[in-house]
Design brief:
The complex is a heterodimer of chains A (442) and B (305). Chain A is of the alpha/beta class. Chain A contains 19 helices and eleven strands. Chain A has two domains: 28-162 and 320-383, 3-Layer(aba) Sandwich (D-Maltodextrin-Binding Protein, domain 2), CATH 3.40.190.10; 164-317 and 396-435, 3-Layer(aba) Sandwich (D-Maltodextrin-Binding Protein, domain 2). In chain A, the strands form three sheets. Chain A has a five-stranded mixed β-sheet with strand order 2-1-3-11-6, with helices on both faces. A four-stranded mixed β-sheet of chain A has the order 8-9-7-10. Chain B is an all-alpha fold and 305 residues long. Chain B has a single domain, classed as MetI-like (MetI-like fold), CATH 1.10.3720. Chain B has helices at 2-37, 57-63, 66-97, 104-116, 119-129, 136-143, 155-183, 187-195, 200-229, 232-237, 249-258, 263-304; strands at residues 40-41, 52-53. The termini of chain B are far apart. The chains are: A alpha/beta (442), B mainly alpha (305).
């Protein structure tokens, strides 16, 4: 009798346990796990740090963050990812690293996580993620190897991504009755008109310093003016008509820029705009956070934002960071849960409210977010034209980028002829591409 | 008996072994690693074992790399200018200050201050001083009614700008070594010269400088080696620009490894730099040896009468 009672009691208990397990929350199995994540020192991730405790409270999963300056972060990741057992469960990576990490088979394909019903949240709404960002930062293996396409798959999610927007001085534009430029023709006319109207003030503050700064500025103009670094057959095309037009645009912008414009890096160009020495600023959205900070800016309340002007096509940059799970991570499922949580609608908004860069359209148009950051909806509009192919993401790009950047600097400061300079870059690029095997099939 | 003999024979080697092993591990292993790496096509995402062995291709590519030659030229020019200027100013200052002046010790400390500042800070400091609008140089020039100078935005000026910063930082090094050498000079020789009626200038040219020469040569060598390797100040001030006008070899090596992710290629460049510095060092030692031999021959001749 006693045995029967015992068996029944055990069965009931087991059944009850099984039922609870079946309806357990998605995070229960991972409660108490400690995730180690690698994040850069970057305004977006500073905002994330403020939101992270919320995740631990909600899920019971602890998160230890290794936050480093982004080049340092990259160096450390490079070491970590080649180990058999890595320390990092989730890493943030700058978009260039996508090519290296995926090619070296160091990032998990996310398909198996999104296929797992216990991990994937059905209300995640991936359609709401900014398409250009996902294509640029998350997908590899499709068209040209680094873009989406029938053969591509997902290796990361955009997190702390950015695009380009035009910042302008509302007061200066109103004073002289100027219209905010919508096209490149209007923009280029205006950049040299402003120093005439406001002596001592530069037209547009742009990066131009030798190396990746000059190259970045050039690429910002190249895509809207109809150019590309390569055609679909990997032939260098930066020296065609559109390429020359982009270099001439940069040359004009720098020549009508504030004093010393030819040596501006991102920081100097930004400072020139914040100090009121330049009337416009065309660069990343991440900059917007500083404009109304009275400690850094003399133009508080005087800046308006508009989408990147349109040339032959509307194309703003895509860049910044994404997050992915290393192949050698120890807690991949929990890392996926964190990744999904961080990029969910709820967290995207929380992070945006703390000053981060949202990755979702809905956050850009959210009323609360716009009440705090009124420019956000303009950014949301600009993002519809975010161009994932504004620069190639291939392992040899660093070398081509440096050559392009130094040549452009020679064009800007040493009077090198635009066509001649770009022809030289194209020729050297062809050699680099030959060596790297891109012309094997020709 | 035999065993004892054998042990005795090996004892010196055993005692030397720890030092030898440390030398091998700490010095030769990393250099060997670098030499080996220069034969590989190696990206930082790979283990060294996964990298492809490509023989001499990195060196052949270097031979055809116009940018490498341009930075090699910039390095030679930079090293020549900074070392010559620093030697002249450093030794000159030492000659001027080698005397009893009140507050001399304070003055000496002030002189060697630049050397104690971290290179990154020196780079930042000069970069802001050269700033086109808010920098102290251009502001002063404007106040005096002159045109401002494109310090770092013109390739010619940028090169001199970098040289000035380096001279500012490293002249004190030559100054303190020259001063120490000067204070160690035998007073008897100087007194003898004075008795013979030598003037100040004659004393400097015929007594002080020749006697200081061995120290000066070592100082020159040390500075030359350093000048070939300078990185941080240039990296911060110009990042090699405008164009490639200030891209010295160390910076090119750094960028090749960091930006282009080509570890093998940057190892090959480092090896070329290493060979160049070795040649310089050997040349200096040979010169020293010749000088010593000549001196000992002279002594022998004097003794013979």
């Amino acid at each position: 009798m006693l045995n029967i009672i015992k068996t029944t009691a055990t069965s009931v208990a087991a059944l009850a346990f099984a039922v609870t397990a079946a309806f357990a929350g998605p995070y229960d199995d991972y409660k108490g796990t400690t995730l180690v994540v690698s994040f850069p020192a970057h305004p977006h991730y500073d905002a994330v740090m403020k939101v992270l405790p919320e995740f631990t409270k909600e899920t019971g999963i602890k998160v230890e963050v290794d936050q480093l300056q982004y080049l340092k972060m990259r160096q450390k990741q490079t070491l970590e990812l080649t180990k058999n057992k890595g320390d990092y469960d989730l890493i943030a990576y700058v978009v260039f690293s996508k090519a290296d990490y995926v090619y070296a088979d160091q990032l998990e394909n996310l398909a198996r996580f999104f296929m797992n019903p216990k991990l994937a949240d059905p209300s995640y709404d991936a359609d709401d993620l900014v398409a250009g960002y996902v294509a640029n930062i998350g997908v590899a293996g499709g068209k040209k190897g680094y873009l989406p396409g029938p053969t591509g798959s997902l290796f990361g999610l955009p997190f702390g991504s950015e695009t380009s927007v035009l910042g302008y001085r509302k007061d200066i534009f109103e004073k002289h009755g100027l219209n905010v430029p919508k096209t490149y023709d209007e923009l280029l006319e205006l950049v040299c008109k402003i120093p005439e109207l406001e002596p001592g003030m530069g037209g547009l503050a742009s990066r131009a310093a030798s190396g990746h700064h000059a190259s970045h500025a050039y690429l910002l103009h190249l895509a809207p003016l109809g150019g590309r670094i390569f055609d679909d057959q990997w032939n260098p095309t930066m020296n065609n008509e559109a390429g020359v037009a982009a270099a001439n645009a940069l040359k004009k912008i720098v020549s009508c820029g504030a004093e010393g414009a030819a040596t501006f890096g991102f920081a100097e160009a930004g400072a020139s705009f914040l100090q009121g020495n330049s009337a416009m600023f065309l660069d990343t959205t991440i900059f917007a956070g500083q404009v109304n900070n009275p400690e850094k800016s003399k133009v508080v309340g005087k800046v308006g934002w508009a989408p990147h002007p349109v040339g032959v096509r509307a194309a703003s940059q895509t860049g910044g960071f994404g997050i992915g799970i290393p192949k050698n991570a120890q807690n991949k499922n929990a890392a996926f849960l964190l990744m999904q949580w961080l990029t969910s609608k709820k967290s995207d908004k929380l992070i945006a409210m703390q000053g981060g860069n949202p990755s979702r359209y809905s956050t850009h148009f959210d009323a609360n977010v716009n009440a705090k950051f009124p420019y956000m909806s303009v950014f949301g509009e600009a993002l519809k034209n975010a161009d994932p192919d504004w620069r190639p993401i291939i392992p040899v790009w660093g070398k081509i980028n440096a050559d392009l950047g130094t040549t452009l600097s020679k064009i800007l400061t040493e009077g090198l002829d635009v066509q001649e300079g770009l022809d030289g870059v194209a020729e050297r690029t062809k050699k680099i591409m030959d060596d790297a095997g891109y012309n094997t099939w020709k | 008996m035999d065993v004892v003999k054998k042990i005795n024979k090996f004892t010196p080697y055993m005692l030397l072994a720890p030092a030898g092993i440390i030398l091998l591990l700490a010095l030769l292993y990393p250099i060997g690693y670098m030499v080996y790496a220069s034969f590989l096509d190696w990206s930082p995402s790979q283990h060294i074992g996964q990298a492809e062995f490509i023989g001499l291709r990195n060196y052949i590519n270097l031979w055809n790399d116009a940018a490498f030659f341009e930075s090699f030229g910039v390095t030679l020019k930079f090293a020549f200018f900074v070392v010559v200027l620093e030697m002249i100013i450093g030794v000159g200052l030492a000659l001027l200050l080698d005397r009893e002046i009140r507050g001399m010790s304070v003055l000496r400390v002030i002189f060697i201050l630049p050397m104690m500042i971290a290179p990154i800070v020196v780079g930042l400091m000069w970069r802001y001083m050269y700033h086109p609008t808010v920098g102290v140089f251009n502001r002063t020039l404007k106040e005096w009614g002159f045109e401002s100078i494109p310090w770092l935005s013109d390739s010619g000026w940028a090169f001199y700008g970098v040289i000035i910063a380096d001279v500012w930082q490293w002249t004190p090094f030559i100054f303190i070594l020259a001063l120490a050498a000067m204070q160690g000079l035998p007073r008897s020789a100087l007194e003898a010269a004075e008795l013979d009626g030598a003037g100040e200038w004659q004393k400097i040219v015929h007594i002080k400088l020749p006697l200081m020469l061995p120290v000066l040569i070592i100082t020159l060598l040390l500075r030359l080696i350093d000048a070939f390797k300078v990185l941080e100040v240039v990296l911060i001030m110009t990042n090699g620009g405008p164009g490639l006008s200030t891209e010295i070899l160390a910076l090119r090596i750094f960028r090749t490894a960091q930006e282009f992710q080509e570890l093998g290629y940057s190892a090959a460049m480092s090896n070329i730099l290493l060979i160049l510095l070795m040649l310089l060092t050997i040349a200096m030692f040979v010169y020293n040896k010749i000088q010593e031999n000549r001196a000992s021959k002279m002594c022998a001749m004097i003794e013979k009468g």
